[in-house]
Amino acid sequence: MWILSQLSTIHLLWAAMVFCQYEDYDFEDEYDEEPDHQQPYYINFNPNTQAEVPRFPFPVECARECFCPPAFPLSMYCDHRKLKTIPNIPRHVQQLYLQNNDIEAVPGGPFTNVTFLREINLSHNKIKFHMIDRGVFAKLSNLVQLHLQHNELEEFPFPLPSSLERLLLGFNKISRLSGNALEGLPNITMLDLCNNFLDDSVLKGKPFSNMKNLMQLNLCNNKLQTMPPDLPLSLMYLSLENNSISYIPENYFNRLPKIIALRMSHNNLQNIPRNTFNLPNLLELNLGHNKLKQVFYIPRSLQHLYIEDNDIEMINVTLMCPSIDPMNTNQLTYIRVDQNKLTIPISQYAFFCFPHIRTIYYGEQNVNVNKSTQLRTPVFRRFLTPEEYDEAEDDHETHDHETEEDHEAEGNYFHPYF
C-alpha cells in the first residue's frame, strides 16, 4: 500500500512538470527563428499588391548557386559568384540578378516556364550575340527591364518582348543594327547604347523613328559624325558625348520640343545656328570640349549651360539674350566657361538678361598658346537672398577648389536611371 502511494505521488509530480513545461513554452519563439533555407516554404500573396502572381500559395524555391532572401521572395540573387552558366530559374521569380559573373551564353533551358520575370540583370559578363538562343528573351511577356551592358555583344540582341521598357546595352562591341532589330518595341522608354561601335551607316535606316514612347537615348562614346536622324517626338534626354559630330542641321530640334537635357560635349562642333536650341523645355545644355568660337541663343527655360574648353574669345550677351521680358525671365543659374580664350568677364548686361544667375565658373583661360591665364575672378557668385541661399546651399559648394576631374565627374553620359 505504501508502495502504491509513493508511485501515485511520483506520477502526480511528473504530470505537474509536463504541464508546467507546456505552460511556460512561448510558441512565438518558433516563428522568431530564421526559416530553414534548404526547404521550400510557402507564402500567401496579397493579390492587390502582386497582381502578376497567382493568388494561390506556391513553393518559393531557389537555385542552390543563388540566394533568395525571405524579405524579397520574388528576387533571386546570383551575382558575383563566378558562375559560367545560368542556373535554373524557379517559376515564381520576377527579379533575376546575374551580374558580375563569367557567363558566356544565354540558352533557353533555364528560362523554360518562367512567366513572371520582370527584370534581368546580366551585366558585366562575357556574353556574345551568337551565344544568345534566338527568342529566349522574346517569350518573356512580362519583362520590362533588361541589363546587358559590359558584355561582348557585336550586334543588337533581338528579338525582344514588346513589354520591354528599359534596355541597357552600353559598353559592348555593337556595330550592327539589323533592319527590324528595334521593331515591335512600342513601350521602350530608355535605351542605352553608349560605348559601342555605332557609326552613321548604322543609323541610316532611322531605327529609332518608330519608338513612340522613347524618352531617353544614350549614344555617347560611339563613332557618329552626324546627328542621328528622325528621333521620336517623345524624346526628353539625349546623350551624344564623345563622338565626332561637326554640325547640327538647322531646325534639327524643331521636331523634338520635349527635350529637357542635351549633352554633346567632346565633339567637333564649330558653329551653332543662332536659334538651334530654341526649345521650350530645355534645362541642361552641355557643349563643352568642342571648337565653338561664339555663343548662341539661350532659351528662357535653360538653367545650366556648359561651354568649357572651346575657342570662345568673347561672350556676346546680345546673341544669348536678344530681348528682355520682365514677365517671362530667363531661368539660367549656372554657366561654365573655363578653358576658353576670354580676356574679360561677361558683360554686366548679362545680369539683366539672366537675373537668376548664381555662378559663373571662369576657371583658367587659354589665351596664350603655351600658357593658361586666369581672370581676376575665377568664380563669380551673385549674392543670394536668405531664401535663395537656403534653396542653393547644396549646389556647387566649392567651385574655387574644383579641378578638371571634378567637373568631368559630373557625368560623362546620362545615368540609366536619369
UniProtKB/TrEMBL annotation:
Compartments where found: Secreted, Extracellular space, Extracellular matrix
Alphabetized InterPro entries for the sequence: Leu-rich_rpt (IPR001611), Leu-rich_rpt_typical-subtyp (IPR003591), LRR_dom_sf (IPR032675), LRRNT (IPR000372), SLRP (IPR050333)
Residue intervals of the LRRNT domain: 61-95
PROSITE patterns referenced in this protein's UniProt entry, alphabetically: LRR
Signal peptide: 1-15
UniProt entry tagged with the keyword Amino-acid biosynthesis: no
Keywords for this protein: Cell adhesion, Disulfide bond, Extracellular matrix, Glycoprotein, Leucine-rich repeat, Proteoglycan, Repeat, Secreted, Signal, Sulfation
Top-rank taxon, per record: Eukaryota
Quaternary structure, from the entry: Binds the alpha(V)beta(3)-integrin.
Function summary: May be implicated in biomineralization processes. Has a function in binding of osteoblasts via the alpha(V)beta(3)-integrin.
Record's protein name: Osteomodulin
Organism: Oceanites oceanicus
